[in-house]
Amino acid sequence: MCRISVSLCLRGVLCISLPLSLAAAQGSPSTQQVTAASVAPTSEFYAKPSAQRLARGKYLVEGTAHCFECHGLSDFGNGLGQPKPGTEGAGQIIKDDDNDDKMYPDGIIVPNITPDRETGAGNWTDSQFERAIRHGIGHDGRKLIDFMPYAYFRSMTDEDVASVIVYMRSLPAINNPLPKMRLGFEVKTDMQQEMEPALRPDATDQIRHGWYLVRIAQCNGCHTPYDDKGNPVADMMFGGGLRLKGEWGDVVTPNITCHPSGISHYDAAMFIKTIRTGRASAGVRDLATVMPFSYFRKMSDEDLSAIFAFIHSVKPVFHEVDNSEPPTFCTICKQAHGLGDRN
Ligand code: HEC
Ligand code: HEC
Q: 223 alpha carbon to ligand 2 midpoint, in Å?
């Protein structure tokens, strides 16, 4: 399995570097095991609406899972990064001006998932939704590219995925026709790899709950460095090092393990304050809006505490990253970032 980090430009303005699988493009056999959950279920899935599911779905979609950061037009320049009103779920085209035109000749098409019957999800069944979210199979049976974080959503419980579907169906229908995505490669079985941290056998229920939320929030996808083949560096998990460049600035994700070079100075209260205010550490500096704090801040204190308990329990990693310092070369993540020369 070969993954590379590519530079993508949203509508030609916002550039984002995210790991994308190239297994098929390279013709390399995937070494990844296809897990049971990645095989599409044969039974039908039903998401019966209820007030409770509607509320839970809103909490997950607009909070933890931040679906509209991709399936809407994010306003990264307003200090929050929330979707522009009226674009929630309507999808978009992410253009890459640099090196990606062969793989995505027309850009990455993020589908319209609002209930619009003509251009969105109005005619899709609950099973079609569920298969896309947890198994990476589109409503038309196509294998989805791993830009859609289905491997992270795979762990969602039946109740939570049903809630997400119930909420998606309650959204206003937005008529937003988008072209079918053309790919310069064939999507093979299961492209996306989720990174499993070593969950200690003695992990408390709070830590386990935190890990459940961390996956849905995809913290590990952003806060882990990737090697030159685009594979996540497993023993650096949560150690930071992914470059994200765009309207929000040019930043490298920081180390969020409890190593002194990470966030050992945080306690749960400071973590919650950081997420709620969008200001880093002791409130000294605004966080770049690509960090989805404006979604995560909608989570309860209980859930944010669980997330903190989990990240506090993972293996501490040495890696200094500070986006407020001038960039210098880092031998750990092989790129320039603030405090890179200290590594
Ligand atoms: C990091 C960006 C990103 C996030 C976050 C994201 N998606 Fe997606 N999603 C995509 C992309 C890109 C595709 C299209 C992939 C393809 O066509 O191969 C997609 C496809 C889908 C599809 C399949 C649509 C179809 O045409 O069959 C559904 C349903 C969907 N997403 C729902 C969701 C939901 C619900 C969430 C939040 C729980 C979510 N997505 C979060 C990027 C994202
Ligand atoms: C889309 C990528 C992305 C995701 C997903 C993401 N982060 Fe971040 N995070 C960032 C970036 C980029 C920064 C640095 C922003 C800056 O320096 O301005 C950051 C900063 C932080 C900080 C501040 C660290 C400091 O130096 O004080 C914390 C804490 C943090 N993230 C925790 C998390 C947690 C926990 C999750 C999951 C619930 C998460 N992040 C998900 C990109 C992401």
A: 7
